[in-house]
Amino acid sequence: MSLDTRDVETVLATVGAIYVLRRVLDGRRCLQSVGHASGPRTLLSQMGALANILPVKPPIVFEEADCDVIAAVSFWPHAEAVLHIANAETIKTTAWARQRFPKRVAQYSFLDMFGPNILTSEFDQWKFFRKVAAPAFSEHNNRLVWAEATRTIVELIENVWKNGQVVHVDNFLEITLSGALHVIGGAGFGRNMSWGDDATAPKGHQLSYKECMVIVSTNIAVRLIYPDWFPSITRDLHRIRAAFSELETYIDEMIDERRTSKEERHDLLSRLLEETDNGDSVMSNREILSNIFIFLEAGHETIAHTLCFAFAFLALYPDKQEKVYEEIKAVASGSGDLPYADMHKYAYTLAVIYETLRLFPPVVTIPKVSTQDQVITSNRLSDGSKVEISCPAGTSVHFSVVGLHNNPIYWDCPEEFRPERFLGDFNKDAFIPFSAGARACLGRKFAETEGVAMMVSLILRYKFEVMDEPRFAGETFAQRKERVLKTAVGLTLTPARVPLTFRRRD
């Protein structure tokens, strides 16, 4: 018996119809499981490692739903519901209930390339990593961060800009990425880097230390897209893989060197080694490597992007820039000295960084998973009334950092750039750029110290504005703002291009 073309078409159509029907029924069950809560309905899943590098537009979704907890339901490759939370009280409660809402570590598996670490682990393993790593982020290390950050800006001005009266920078992100790399190199690894470092590889290496740091810190997404088994079909891919391998060798060499040295050092690697060698908890070299790699990635890209966005805002709002400068002048008192001891006096400068983090948090969502059937409380945005939403066991729960930071219940005119909102009392539970609960970022003070130091060092000497370009002549302020604050796809929220002109102060 043979089938003709019409029979084959009928069979395929029937199979297709059954598949679609099953997807629809599964989707309906998903909707029922979360009580038909409001939220977007999409074909493709929002889960998986690639979800971390896809662009998002959260605030408008919460406004349309009139609720600060929404259920996003997708239907392929299988039906699933994800609860997105922009409610401060619910996030706080959920963040501390780690047994009921553990971190969804599977979404961070691509950062396990050197092994488990403090970012990609949970429960006892995470506690172990945190216990060993926490002492490394000390006041001694903060002083080192400040020294490295101020040094790298002074070197930029003197050795790269040559103390120029007018300096045009096509994309300020290149400056902040390099500067942040120098800081993490010195304060993180205890190995100073400068703007003039050459690319000469030492004996036994294919690439220089700085080349490895630059390539690795900017190509995590490439490692995600091209797994180890994929052949190195291009020169760039071969070079990226070589850089990851070389960085591992460099760190192994530094570990051996620090363990035989008697010199007291306060960089993160040295302090991590001291804690694991002299404490009760012992990390293997591989675990040290993996955690140091996470410190590199977290301490480089995130602060670099934040600083770039902050300078973009200050270029767009010169009155805010002038307030920062007046604060720096008042603290420096005409001497031009910028000691770490004065950091606490830069309240407005830190407020600028906080407001930038509110509007452009490096990580836009923090994934958790519900381990049991429970209920999540939300607010109506229109009147503040309470709404309860079902959260069955196995449901993905995401803290929407962008949604929370734009929630009008906690922030007046949330779309506006207002650093002043951080000078007085504000709802600290509604501000989570460094995550929340027990898993809040260990490197918060590291990042704040680096950001303030680099800002005051540069703004003390230069004022700046958005670079004038003939092709953008006649654009409105709104158009200029949209252009300068445009984001690009990346592992964290990334500035696309921030062109600035710097003018030497008298």
From TrEMBL:
Protein's UniProt keywords contain Membrane: yes
Positions bound to heme: 441
Similarity-based family: Belongs to the cytochrome P450 family.
GO molecular function term, any single one: heme binding
Pfam assignment, any one: p450
Alphabetized PROSITE patterns for the sequence: CYTOCHROME_P450 (PS00086)
Required cofactor(s): heme
Source species: Schizophyllum commune (strain H4-8 / FGSC 9210) (Split gill fungus)
Keywords noted in UniProt: Heme, Iron, Membrane, Metal-binding, Monooxygenase, Oxidoreductase, Transmembrane, Transmembrane helix
Alphabetized SUPFAM superfamilies for the sequence: Cytochrome P450 (SSF48264)
TM spans (from-to): none
Domain of life: Eukaryota
Keyword Iron-sulfur appears in the UniProt entry: no
Primary location recorded for the protein, binned into one broad class: membrane
Listed name of the protein: Cytochrome P450
Compartments where found: Membrane
GO cellular component, one term: membrane
Pathway(s) this gene product operates in, as recorded in its UniProt entry: Secondary metabolite biosynthesis; terpenoid biosynthesis
